[in-house]
Structures are given as C-alpha cells and as structure tokens.
Structures
1.
Amino acid sequence: MQIGLFIPCLVDQFFPQAGLAVARILKRLGHSVEYPAEQTCCGQPAFNAGVRSEAAALAKRFIQVFDRFEAVVAPSGSCVAMVRNFYPELLDLAPHSSFITRVFEFSEFLVDRLNVTDLGATFNERVTYHDSCHLLRELRVREQPRQLLRAVKGLDFVELNDGPTCCGFGGVFSVKFPEVSTVMGEDKVAAIERTGARYVVASDCGCLMHIGGLLTRRDSKVRPIHLAELLGGAP
Amino acid sequence: MMHTPVLEEQRRATLARALNLALDKRRQSVAEFPDWEAMRQRAHDIRAGALDRLDEYLNQFERAAAANGIRVVRVATAEEACLYVVAIAKRIGVTTAVKSKSMVTEEIHLNRALETEGIRAMETDLGEYIAQLCGQPPFHLTAPIVHLSRDEVGRILADKLGVPFTNDPTQLTLIARDAMRREFLTARLGISGANFCVAETGSLVLVTNEGNGRMCTTLPAKEGPRVHVAITGIEKVVPALKDVAHLLRLLARSGSGMRLTAYTTLINGPRKRAAGEETTGPDEVHVLLLDNGRRAMLRDPHLREALCCIRCGACSNTCPVYHRIGGHAYQSVYNGPIGSVWSAALWDTEQAATLPFVSSLCGACADICPVKIDIHHALLWQRKLAADRGYTPRWQRLVWWAWRVAMSHPALYGFGSIVARRLFSPAILNRLGKPWTETRDLPPLARKSFHEMWKEEAPK
C-alpha cells in the first residue's frame, strides 16, 4: 500500500522518534511509506480557537498534500480526529468523502485496516495506557492500542483506573488555563503512579508532553512513551 | 482573559465526593437497561422532534392548557416575565412568594425583581434555600449546594436561623422544614418552573425530591386568592405523555442515579370550583413560556441541539474542568459544559463568550448526555461565534494569521524549526514557555526534527 505519513507538529518538533517508529513498522509490514515534505499542520489549533478561516486554509492545503495517497497514517488521534470529524464541517465536505475515510490513526490502521496486532515486540516492563480524549471519544478507538500492547512479549499491562479522564492538556486550554490544566494533570499523574507502572503509553504527543512535563517536574520514575515507539523496539 | 481559579483542595475533595457518588449511582441505575444507548437516541429524537415542530406543539399545548383553565402567556424577555409575576403579586396583595427550584427563574433573576418591589421570594428546595440564606447562586444545575459539607450547612443554618448547631442530616432537614412549613401554610403565590409541558394534555410536569414543589403549587392557604405561576422555556414542550414517561426514565438516572425523583407532579390546571370537585389547589395557574434568546438558538443548527437539554446536570458531574473549578467560577446562572453553551447563546457578553473556552474539549459531557447533545462540538461552535463577534482580541487574531502564513509555507516553517533548535536550549524554552512551565516542564526540542531525520532515514 502507498502510505502517506502525516507527522503532526508536536511529533516533528519534540517526538520525532515516534514518527520514525511508525514509518519503520509500516515498512517492515511491506508497505511503501512516503513523507510528503511540504506538510505542515492540520489546522486544529486555530479551529479550536474559533478562528475557522485560518484553519480552513490549512485544511485545504492538507488535503492537497495528502490526496494522492491510498492511506494517510499519523501517530496522533487528535490530529486525525480534526481531519475526519471536523474537516467536513469546516470545508463543507461530505462526512464520508473519499479523502476523509483514508486518514487513520496509527493503532486503528494497524488493527482495523491491516489486521495486525502482534508486531513481535518485546518490552520487559510494567506499562499503563492513557486514553487520549480525541482518540477515545472522537475516533472511538479504545481496544486497538490495548490489543497491540497485550501482544508485546514481556509486557505487564495494567489499566489506569481513572475514568478514563482527560489529562488536562487540551491544546491552547493548557496555556489559557494553566492552573486548571495542571490540577487535572496532577490527578492523572497520581493515578498513573498508583498503577506501579514504569511507563505510561499514549497515542497522542500532546498528552505525552503534558503528562511527561508533570512527571519530570516531580522527579517521577515513570516515563511517558508513544505507543509506536514502544512497539518499534525503543527505547 | 477570564481568571479561572481552581477550588482549594478541601473544596475539590468535597465536590468530587458528591459528584462521583452521583456518577457511581448513575452507572448502576443505567446498567439496568441493556438498551441504554437506544434509549438515549429515542430521548434525543423526542426532544429534537419537538423542536422541529415547536410552534405547532406550543400552540397545541396552549389550547389544551387553556381548556384546563390554565393561562398560557408567551414572554419574549426576562424583564417581561418578571413584570408579569410582579403584577400578579400586586394584584393579589402578597408580600411573600414560595418558590420551587427553577433554573429559568434564576436565568431571569426573578427574586431580585420581586425584591425591588418589596416581595420576598422564599426558596423551598432545601439546597436552594440554603444557597439563598448565604446569598449564593446555585453551584450546579440540579444540586445548588453540592459543594458544601454537612458541617458547613449546619453552621449556615445555626448562623442564619439562630438554631443550635447540628450536622445531622435528619435534624438539618427538620430545621429547614420547620422554617418552610409556616410559609407553605400561608403562602398565596407559588412559583415554579416546569420540567416538561405536554402538548397533548396541556399538563405541566414537575420533578422534585422533597415535596416542596407540590406545596408551592397546591398552596394550602385558607384565605384569599391563591395563584401558581410556572415559568419555563419554550423549548420544554414535548408532544405527549408517553414521551414524558420515556424522558423521566433517563432524567433522574442521569443526574443523581435515582430511578425517578421522589415526586413527579403533573399539574392540569387550577382547583376545579364546582361543588364537591376539589378542595385544594390554586385559584389560578399561569404558565409563562419564555423565549429570552431561545428562538435565536433554534435558528442556528449547531445550537439548536442544545435546546434538547433536560437539565439533568450529568455533564457537570462528569466534567473534569467543572470538578476543579466548581460552578461559581463560571459566573453564570447556567454553568458546566451545557451551561457554557447556553450562557454564550443567551448573553452576548465577554464573560459568557469566554465560557466555551473553559473546556479541554475532552467530550466526556457528550458521552454522558441522556439526550445525546454533542456538547463539546457546540462549545467549539460557540468559540467560532465568539471569534466572529470580535471577542478574540486583535493581537490573538494577528498571531493566528501569522501562524497560518508560516504553516502555509513549508520553507518558512522548516526555517523556523531549525532556528528554534539552535536558539532554544531547554532552559530558555522553559523560560519562554510560561505560564505553562511554571508547573510543568517542556520536553527539550528534539536534536533534529522529524523532517530533518527523514532525510537520513528515507533511503533505508
């Protein structure tokens, strides 16, 4: 399959390893992976700020960049939700336009589209999983990352019994309302620590950045890691 | 920007205990229905269907209610509604009114309007009564003092009523009942909201847990004319009683986890006066159907859905932001997720326009809503309206414009990314990143961006 790699801004700037892991895994499964270098942002930050005309300009651009691929895969539930759930409203597209239905989040692409759950990875650690809100509630992806994690040899999976509730990132929300966002994040981190896990896995770098920023601030031993990176054999 | 303080830790814990208890009970009572999802859809369809043919159902309700002897009055604004109630109070010569809990009367600030005319409105819902005693607005759509501990309630009653302190819930209830009973027995003006108006029968449906709703609407006073005024929004009309039966199955379960509220009251008109017919009940029943911005919501396809709300409060119970900031932080009668949508729709003020931004857009509200309102999508739409109306400061618009220009030119974005990498050490990044970094670290920028790494990776 001819796959276009969609690397959201946060992955590009802070977590490039997660992007590389996605590319390597997909290549290993025999697909051709291309990273269109002219890609930038899907437009979500402006959309969430209510500035829809700026968001629409980037959304149109996004479709031009990625339209030629059979499938577009991104290591982010949030950015894929932007494309799949909000582009139709933003650009007046049909909700099942052929472009929209070709854009996938990494874990749902592996499990639902490629029918792969076991990537042959080994990870000898206790791990918990944070459901990022947009992946869970916009894309309704809940089981796929868990299936992928459970197939990892040596991995001791524990559920994070906290709802699932938001980590408090919320994009611009975390900047506009830092106190509220922090308290939400601190409760999340406390729940993570209660599991005794050494790693917290998520499928969105926004959550990982927020949770990670609180973990390091309190010198926690828990490390945040993107699902793709864990499956790709890191760290 | 609105300053949104987080509740202090003790208050957060008190609130979380109460809200989580409601959520736990909700989970249990919802589990009794394997087809809960289908029930939500049906509830949505009932409400949305009623809104689709709103005028038809309102007219039908009006005719049926009139046939029962109820006076139905359409009021366009809060002011009009308040004037109407004041006029009744003056006509029948009362200086006290007893009130059942009603968010619409909060919306129109009826108590204040009555007070300026020398009429005391006494809240008789226990929570609302205590909130009124300490001069606070309701903290939550359905639970006005959900944030107070019983110790605090005990102190408020001791302080305001001069009774000995107790924190025993039964004793506290008895104290409040004592204070209210005297008023109930002599009141001649009763004010309530209505949870539903039934078009088919012209009935008002009122759900309460303390029986105070019935006291306020039957008015057992022996002397003088007695009047019940119900004030509700035009959106509360439903076609038939069978629709009410369905919605009631979801309403209390969603809000408090109870199967039904303790009292479900159907009001079908004033006391029938023919000899031997009815000995209790008011001489007149008036229903005010309030617009106050609802028709404008109806015209906007994105806000229309929000009119489906049956005011269960579940979205506040589950909202991680509400849990941390509490109801008063919204500084609006309608608070929490759906309250933010409503507030921004009803009031064209900067404060109200800010509320849709006080959300991480996690979507937990939409998942719990018994009538399936896409609450967080409505919040997103309200953010757009806020920007369109000019509530987004000019400098922010400029930032978004510059951001879009940079993102439209990959070379510019790439150049910025390389420059940032050279200039911003983690220490500088942490300084630049305030206020984010006051409580959280920012990860270091990767040594190479993905974009740069891919150039080396691609040939492999």
2.
Amino acid sequence: MTNDQTAPAAVKILIAGGFGVGKTTLVASVSEVAPLRTEEYLTRASVGVDFLDGVDAKDTTTVALDFGRITISPELVVYLFGTPGQERFWFMWNDLVNGVLGGVVIADTRRLDTSFASIDFFESRGVPFVVAINCFDGMNTRSAAEIRAALDLDQQVPLLIGDVRTRGFGRDVLLALVDHLMTPALA
Amino acid sequence: MSEHWSERAAQEDDGAESMVRPYTITRGRTAPERDDLTLITVLTTAQDAAETGRRLQPEHRLILQRCRRPAAVAELAADLDLPVSVTKILLGDLIAQGLLLARAPLSVARASGGGPDLALLAAVRDGLRRL
C-alpha cells in the first residue's frame, strides 16, 4: 500500500471496561466531535461457540464501537476507541491494538470484576495502561489502596479517581497515560 | 458453505463488473481482500480522482467526496453507516484504482520492541494539555 505522508498520522488510545461503566462518556468528555459509532461483524468463526449461547441462529451479529478524536496538530490525530472488555471480543482487539499508544481501563468500584478482562487483555498484549475509577457524583467509598488490591494492580500502573463526565478528569486520565508511557521504567 | 466473494470476483474477468458489490459481500462474509487497512488508517482522495471512476458505486463516490479532507477508516464507516469490514472492501477498491491514498497508523515503537517515541508522546501531551 502506498503510504501517503501528506495525510495526518494517526494513533489511538483504547478506552476499555465493562458494559455501562462510562467508556463512551469519557470519550465524549475529551473528543472534539460527538462520539461516532461504527459497527463490526461478529462471525461464528471469530467468536467461537460460547458466544452463541442465547443468540438466535443468525450467522452474524455486530458489535458497536464508539470513538472520538483529538486533533493534536495538522500532522497528528489521536483517536479514542471505547472497547468492549469481554474476552469474547478479543479477536477484534487485534485490529484495535494496531497503532495503539496505550489504554485506559475504566472501573466502577461497585463492579470491579467487570474490569478484570480489560486489565488482562492489556497486560497480555503488553499495552501500557492506566486505571480510571469512575465515580458518578462522588459515589466512591473505597480507598485507592483497596481498589489496587482488589484489581491486583501493579504498583506502577497509575490509578485515578474521578467523574468521567468532566473534561478535566478525562484530560487528566489521558495525561497520566502519556506520562506513564514516558516513564523510563517502561522504556 | 458458498465460495468466498473474492474467488467469485476473480472469476469475473470481463472487466465490466469488476466492482465488488458491498451488499452481496455483507451476507456473512466480511473479510476484506487487503488486510493492511486498520480502523485508523487515514485515507485521502487522490488529486486526479475527479477525472476517473466512471463505474463507481454511490458509496465509492461518497468516500471520494468525504476524503478530500483526510479521514480514518472508522470515521468513514460511521459516515457511511456501514460495518467496518464492508467499508474496508470499498476503500480497497478505490486504493487499487489509485483514487484513494492511504496512510498507515504510526507504528508505536513499544509494540515493535523499541523504546517509546518520546517526541510523539511529547506532542500528544502538549495537545492534551490544551483541552
């Protein structure tokens, strides 16, 4: 393929986490456009048999990806992709990790277990990530240390607590990721 | 199981119907012919694209219009309201005809075993701080 150097270069950041945890909300808080939605097919071959439990006999179904963008400069665009965390979607993540800078795992302290798969994915693929604890309306009742223990999180993985609806928190989460990526220990 | 669409397309060698039709492709077969298009591959319409493409489908024309300003595969799929894999097939048609130019995502150094690209990260950081 020709590689057109006149177009902006693109990189992406993956925003992962369980259903309803605030992935698209975080994307919306920092994106320069309202989050866009795109769909990709899930086929029998790609998801295996387990996925078909409870699914009627259709050959394909689709999974939606919400994403946004931040134009850094005329030469560089960062795309933010909300990513379903469940293992059954991991086949799709092989495309998603292409050009990825790093990841954000959003977690809800009431349902921390829904974040395990996302953390596992990033760890298994060597994708650096930060964890953002989303507490709508300050509903967090657990300390950072408790959360780290519950998630079995490496000490060097940044953990932030805030409200993903606010642009300030979204920005801080992404900045924490970039700072994390720049730390010599990761190099 | 029926034959793969790409095999069928290859058999149609008269040239009159060489364009693969997306809605026949979508019936359960979703693999684009080329595997180098990613969600964030950036597409731009070639300068001379306006003069060619007589047999293009409406979706192809929409893509060429849209890509006068560079756009990523995912953005085009969202704009066209088509699944990503179908969009990739249409984009592949246009790239093969030289009507569309593609730019691959930056290969992020860590993934290829090197250290982080500090200049890239610094640029991203500066951009985020302006949010």
3.
Amino acid sequence: MIVDINAARAAAEQSIANALTIDELRQLDTELLGKKSPLALLKNGLGKLATVDEKKAAGQALNEAMSAVEFTLAQRRALLGRAERNVQLSAEALDLTEHFAVAGRGKSHIVTQAWQRLEDVFVGLGFQVAEGPEVETDWYNFEALNMPPSHPARSMHDTFYVDHGQPGSTVLRTHTSPVQIRVMQNVAPPIYMIMPGRVFRNETTDATHLAVFHQIEGLVIDRGITLADLAGTIEAFTQAFFGAGFTSRLRPSYFPFTEPSAEFDIRTPKGDWLELGGCGMVHPNVLRAGGLDPEEWSGFAFGFGIDRMAKERHGVGDVREMYTNDIRFIEQF
Amino acid sequence: MKIVHSWLRDLAALPDDSEAISFALSDIGLAVESVEKVGATVAGVITARVIKTQRHPDAAKVHRVFLDNGDGTEHHVWCGAFNMQAGDIIPWATPGTTMPDGRLIETKPIVGIPSEGMCCSARELGLGDDHEGILIMDPATPLGVPYGQALGLAEEIVYDIDVLRNRPDAYGHIGVARDLAARFKVPFIQSVPTLAVTGDSRSAPVEIVAGDRCARFTTIIISGIRITQSPDWMVSRLAAAGMRSINNVVDVSNYVMLETNQPNHAYDFETLGGGGFKIRLAAEGEKITTLDGVERVLTADDLLICDATNRPIGIAGIMGGQNTEISPQTTVVALETAWFEPIAVMQSVARMNLRSEASARNERGMDPFGIDISIARFVELLRVTCPDLVVHQGMVDERSESIPPPKSIYVRPARVSALLGKTFSASQITDFLVPLGFSCQQAGADFWVTVPSWRPDCTLEIDIVEEVARHFGYDNLGKTVPKSTQPGGLSVIQHRRRRLHEILLGLGFNEAMPHPFLTDGDLSNAGLPDVAVRLVNPLVVGDDVLRTSLRPGLLKAIAFNESHRRTGVSFYEIGHVYPTSSDILPDESEALGVVIAGSDAPQAVAVWRELATAMGWGARLDQSQVPSGLHPTRSATLSAGKDVVGAVGEIHPDVLDAYNITQRVAVLELNLSRLLAIEPKVAQWKPTSRYPSSDIDLAFTVPTSVTAEKIEKALRQTAGVLLVDLTLFDVYRGKDASDSRSLAFRLRLQAHDRTLTDADVATVREKCIAGATKLGAQLR
C-alpha cells in the first residue's frame, strides 16, 4: 500500500509539474485530490488493511501525500499565475506619450486673475470688497470727491459723458473713487474696504493706455487713522502681493480728494523703483460728502491699475492685446 | 517744466549736487521725470587753424591736414573729410581725447605717417546732425581754446519736473528754489530789484470792463529800446529751459516768466491804437489772429485785451495778437502784466485748444502781488542790452474787486499731529512754514497762518498739514498698520460670483472681456432692440452705444476668432450692461453671457442645467417665448415666477450672417444681478440605500409636439418613490424628416428597505410605459 501511495504521489506531482496553465491546474485539483482521485481511492482501501499498525502507517503516508500534492499544486498555481500575469502585463504595454488632450479647462482672463489675486491679498489684510455702478452721476464721480463744477482738477480726467438725464449730469466713472462715497453713505465706520472695478477715460489708446481699464481702490476710515497708517498699509500690501523683498515709498503728490496726497512707488529686490499708484488721507470735504464728521473720523485711500499688474506679470507688450478676445492670446495663460 | 540747476543756485544757496537736488525735488512733491545735461562739451577738443591740406598718392580716401593751434608748432592730422580750406578754423580733438561715443583719440599712423588726433564734425561733438564735413568755425575765433568756450556753450543740468495742479508757484524757478531752500534749510536769495523810474510821464491807460475776469492789469512805458541779440548766458539758459532766443525784448519777457512765474507781454507802443488798453469779453464770433498766425474765432466767454480803440490785440492770459508784435524797429514798449481769473482761462484754453507758456501759468492761478517784482526784473534785465532805456512815470495799476484777498488759516498742532501720526509742536510747524513764505501768529496752543499770495492752493488746515508732511518728509513719518476690528472677506454675492467663474472655467469656457461700447447697428444686428444710452463724446465716432447686452461683444469675439481660422471656440463673460431708464442712472446690472460656437441649442441648455444645479438656481424653460435675436425654433426664455431671468438656445441665423459667423452658436444669457442674489438651498443629506439598484431602459417614439421634458416629468411621476435617477441618454431622428423622434431614458430604481424583485421592477416599468403612452409616446 505504501508503495502505491508513493507511486500515486509521484504521479500526481509529475502531472502538476507538467501542467502549463492555471486552467489545467484547476482540472488537476479535482483529478488528484477529488473523490475519485487515486489517493482518495487508496484512502477508501484503508479499511481493508490487516493490522492497526499497517492502517496507521498507510493513513499517515496518505495524509502526507495529500498535503504534499496540495502544496505542490499551490506552488505551481502561484508560479503559473505570476507567469500568466507577466504575459498579460507585457501584452498591455502602452506608449504613454500617445495621449490625447483632455477636453480642457477654460482660461480665466488675466485681468480677472490679477483682480482676484489682489482681492485675496487685501482680504487677508482685513479688507472687505465693495462695488458700485460704472455709469455714475457727476456728483459721485466729481463733486463729492472735492471737485465741484469747473474745478481745475477735472481736466486731469478725460471724461466720457453719457446722454442721460440733464446734460453733463451722467458720466462713465473715471475712477473707482465714487464707490468710496457710496460706501461712506451706506456703511458705518470703521471701514476697511477695497473697491475694484472697471473705469473709463476718454483718451487715445496705445500700448500702455486704454480707454476702458480696471482699478482697485482702498478706503480705510476709523478713529485716529494717520498718514503713517497709510504708509504701513501700502508696505504690508507690497510685501504680501509682490513678495518679501519688496518695499514701498510715498512721495508727495496732488489729488483733489485726498490731502496730504502721495504717489506710492515700490522697490524691487533688485533696487528698481516702480510707480504704482496714488494715495492720501481722505480730504475733509470728501468725508463730509460721505456724511462723516472729519473731526471724529479720519482715513486714507489708495488706488492703482489692475490691468498693469496683469501686463507686468505676464510681460504683455501691448495692453490692447488683452482685450482682443483672441483665443490665441487667452489660451496662453 | 524744465528747471535749470545753475538758475536755482542763483536763487538759493543750494549744494552743487544734482543727485541730492533731484532726490529732494521728488521728495517734496516736484517729481523729477528726467535729469539732463545740456551743452556739455568734449574735453581736449580745441580750436585750430588749417595751414594747408595735402593729398598723398598712397591714401585715396584721406588727405593730410596741417594745423596751427597757436603754439608755434605745426601739427599733422589725417582726415577723411575734404570740406576745409587753408585758413579755416576747426575743432581739433587732440590725442588723449575721449569722444562722446567713447572713442579714444590716439596718434595713429597711416602709410607710416602718424596722425596727431582728429578734426571733428558737428555731430561728433554732439552739436547737431551735421556730419557732412568738419565743423568750420567763425574766422575770428581765437586759436588753442576749448571749442565750447569759443562757441559760447555753457553746460547746464536741467531737471524736468512734473508740476502738480496745486502748485502754480512751481512753474517758476523762484517757487522751486524757495521750496528747495526750505528743504535744505539754506537761505533763499531772491534779488528784489528796485524799479528806477527816470522818464517823463507817459501812460497807457487801462479800462477793465470785465472786472470779474481780470483782477489786476498794470502797464508801464519803457522807451530807448534797441532790438538786438541777448547775451550768451541768457540764450544758453533759455535754451536749457527749452526756449529759443528771439531778440532781447522777447527773451527778457520769457526769462522773467521762467524765473518769477509771472507772464507778461510787451506791446510795441507805437502800434497800440489809442495808446491804451481795454479788457472786455469777446463778442460771439469775434476774430483775432494770434502770434502763431492762426485766426481764432472767439465766444462770449473768452476775454480779450483790446487797444483803446477797442481793437482786439490779445486773448487775455493766453496769447497776444500779431498786430502789436515787437518788430526790429520797436523802440518804445508798453509792458503789460496782469492777473486773470484762472478757471475762465482754463475754459478758454480748452475751448480753443490753444495752449501757451502763459496760459499754462494763468490757468493755474498766479500771484496777484508778484507783478511788481516781475516788472522791476524785466527792466533790470533789459537794461543789460539797452543801457539807454528809460522807464517812464505814469505806471497804470488798474484793479478790480475780484483780486483774491489774503487768506488766514487756523491751525491746531494737535490736529496736525493726529493726522500725521507724529507729535509736532507749534514751533516745529512754524519752522517748516516760515521759509515757505507763510507767517504764523500764536493763538493759545494753536496759531493763525497767513498764506503767501503765491500759494492759492492753501485754504484749509489740511493744506497746512500737507505742507508740514512735505517738509518733514513722508519717509520720516514711519509706517504703522491700523488694526481692523472687522474680519476681511468677500460678500456672499462675491463668493457666488467667484464660484460661477470657477464652474464656467471647469466646463471649459474661456473668459472674454469685450469692449462695453458698441457701434451703431451692433444691437439691431444682434436682433436686440436698438434702444440704448449713448455717449456724448465717444473716442471713436460711432462707438457711442453703451451695451444693453453682452451678446454683440461675444459674437464679435467668435467672429474675430473665426476670421483667424479658430472655429468651435466658446467664451463666457461676466460684466455690466446699461439699459436705459428714467431714473437718475441707467438700469445698470450684471449679466452672464455664454457662447459656444459650433454647438447647438441643447448644449446651452445642458450648461444652464449644470449651473442651476451648482448655484441653486431654478427657472422655467419656456420654449413658447422666443427671446429676440435667437433661433425661433431652438430657443427658450428662462423665467422665474413672472420675471425673465435669462435666455437659452441658439443665435438666429440672420444674426450670425450679420456678424459674419458661419458656425452655429449656442448661447446662454443670464441676469446675474437677480440670480446671484438668490441664496442657494444647502444640499441636505439623503441616506444612500444598502440594497442593490435595478436599471430600466425605455425608448419611446415621441411626437415632435411633445417635449422631452414632459415625458421625463410623466416618467418621474409614474415611477414614484422607487425612482432614484432618470436620464435621457439618446435622441434619434430618422433620416426622413418626420413628426416624431425616439427618446431613450434610463431609470434607476432602488428601495431603502429591501432588494427589489423582478415583479417590483416590472410594475414600475408598466406604469411608466402607460404614463408616457398617455402623452402620445409609443414604446419602441
């Protein structure tokens, strides 16, 4: 019996070794270990053995043989499985550079990108964002900003007049400053607001000037606000927006709606100065126009162009390019 | 405004350091746009006389020039220009000279004969563009002297400063020098010449008719004048300041203006009709030919200077007339110096588009009391070339009520300190103000400041605050950051707008920014009502329509790109539109436009559905209301309640033709002012079922008259609570135009408490088929 068992085991192991596919092994599983397998049949014959010792020895040999066959089978299955997976993997080889573009995201206008970056920086500095109409009354655009009719400074603004209401009463806002007045009228101080928006100047366009462009304006009104606060806020913005190596400087200037007034320049880490925008302490007449008492409240305002931020960041040689809506331009950013 | 360095140093004890002065100018608000050196000469170039010239057989392109520079030695130079003759005096660059272009002149041999330096052309010395030949100088020029000295060239440093609207005084060297002297804390030394009146009494009487426009008008008669050239130093300074020398009288007039800032006008007294002046408003349509030879037509708002016979001889404060111009024969002049109301001058300048050095000053506001010094200075300078001139008694000084009164401002040091963020005492403030010409009078802790007549900009305490800040230095005030007590952030609407941008970009749309001005016809070409607010003064004639819709701009963008062979582009724009209104302002609102070239209407509806889901918007798709300008059988109005909130569909083919677009264009237009105000419902959790789902696909042949939306609704209703998802996944139209199409829907069924049985699914299926059939659909 032991001889038969060993023979069956050897035969089984041989046929496992001969199997070349997982499918063959699956079949062998039944053939070699199933109820009708040679080993199972031998097991059935155990009872016919004469002595207990014989039965015991043969039983042990049978168990060992079955375990060995199972083990060999598992080993062979693992081996063939790996081989088959390897065949599959090589068959699936792809050249990853053969790909098609995805449908693609749309491109945000670079002025919107600059606008949103600026908003985000000011929000981080504690500002909220206010908006106002682009078509304005003369009162909000000029008069409330300390530029009564025939004020000489009005000639600094090349104004588009709109045929609406009384002649001369309606304009396309020449700056975002009218929003200052609207904010003062509607929001009780303290006010920490920025006002981005589209503005209009009736001047011939060229590579650096547009008739329709965008500004961002800041307004702070609180108790005890000083010119040093203005300088500090410009500095904080400069470092937050442009980077740590940048500094800023105020130079005296003139705007009817602020006094003292200043231009603010920023210095690049290389040491170059760039003129950025205008600023100053809100003029007492402007505070009054906004319904605030200049003896109680003081504040500052500042403003600069958004388009230029986009132009400089992306090295656009001609600002007019930004408004052609040429897909070949838009797709670049 | 060109300010000459040496001129400033005549007026104030300023350092001879152009960098320090340039920095200080910008730091006190007189921004320096450029610093230029004019009249610079090349060291080492001296005058020499040509003794003889000689050709050499081995050098065809050059000849030998023998020079005498007065040192008794003959010098030899090879030269490639042949325009000089023996006896000519020329500039000679001696060996060792560095030319303006950087060339070092050395002794170099040609055919073995050394050349000692170089003969110079005008261009090589930076004296102009002439490089045809060597510069031939005046035969009387002394030999061996620097050519610059021989030509009377003086080197000047010139600051080009940007004079701000509020600083009329800075249009003259005196004003700039005074400001700088205060900054450098050095003495300001304005010479105040006395006017020696020696002649008999001769007057040019003045009648001011329009007193509100002319506050002061002075005349004085000066005789014994000989028209000649101005001295070199004056010519040189005028040139540095950008003015050409004309003759001694005109030059002095300009020089006095550049120095004192006071414009003046010298009339030939002999040609002055009636020997006097009348200042009146022009008659509407009255004409005058100004000094520049142009005939000007005036309005009743322009101010005229007339002679005593009422003949116009100048436009007040702007430009004189041709008829009383100084001529070479002039010997007696009537010198006019006056003060005109600045805003009216500004308006006349704008109306006539006529600008002059005088108008630039007069329209900003002159010092009404600076006149006297300027007259004395005029005489002092003219006497240099006319030693025999006589100033006649009988100066006329006519004034009107409108002369600006002196101003006093109450100034509180505490207020100055509070606004500047640094404590300033009354005496510190006074120390800043007095050198600028302000006078201060203590009043307790505060004081009264009297404003000098040349600073019309200072009227309020805040103006004094600015003067203190300017002269203390903005940079010295420090930088502090105010503490905001409110949190920063975007408003809810701004957040929603940002989200909308992100979704649209994510859907693949590019953001366009078309011009908000439209051209005549753009609206009607887009099928929109041609009713819009217009610009009064457009930049480009015809570009005067304020858009009432984003559609024309977006269609132009599609057309532009199509014309550049880029079809199938899609854009969105979020921007303002400005429809007409009877209110104070047009009915401005924010809009969204989406255009998808090469796509048909359902694509736009799909975009609307995606946006509506994401943004929490709801609206009825009303296919019975075709928005104007859209495709009549492929478009719908989006309505919420009674209001129209948008339009969706395709652009009308007529509109596409008008915009030269050959592709279909799907379009979505929304009123964002309305929609962004909607607070979206926050999505609430629906438990997901643990049990498997079952899908049913149902394809129907549906009459064209029945919308997919109706079938969808019926399926939803009949499927009941087990329906968790329903999508239209296929539309099929047979080739032959028929009155129906096939619509295929997929329904996903699922229960929360059990696995659905085949019987459950079959029941729902039967009900759905019955529901759709009722509407005229037939199961395929």
